[in-house]
Design a protein that fits this description.
Elements: E1 7-8, E2 14-17, E3 28-29, E4 32-33, E5 35-38, H1 44-59, H2 66-79, E6 81-85, E7 88-89, E8 92-93, H3 98-107, H4 109-120, E9 126-127
Antiparallel strand pairs: 1-9, 2-5, 3-4, 5-6, 7-8
Helix pairs in contact: 1-2, 3-4
Length: 128
Amino acid sequence: MDFSKKKIVADDAQYMEIKDPVTDEVMEEDGKVARLKVVGSDSKVFKAGFKEWNDKNRLKKNGLSTADTEKHMKKIYCACVVGWENIEWEGKDMKFSKENLMNLIDSCPFIYDQLMEFVGDRSHFLES
């Protein structure tokens, strides 16, 4: 097998379809799928965020607290989201912004779970 043909394209954003946490079915309404546009864990954005977290952690005598680590990891994963489609809140289109993204995943933690899984799955970011 020629592995040189497997190219990681983690900086090329891919769409992650949001799934219902109970049924595991893609969440859609009127044929419009709710989805996030994200880059992968090998992207420059993810690596920079992880380096920042690692540097902060090394500078602390006893390391970062669990709460600080969770907060920073959420920040890293949210930085990987570069857009979205068909996201509504209270019946209205929700404009994409980092603030709105944080509010969305705080209100719907299953989206954050799916985001972490998608970003870390290199199969979404391989070109052959």
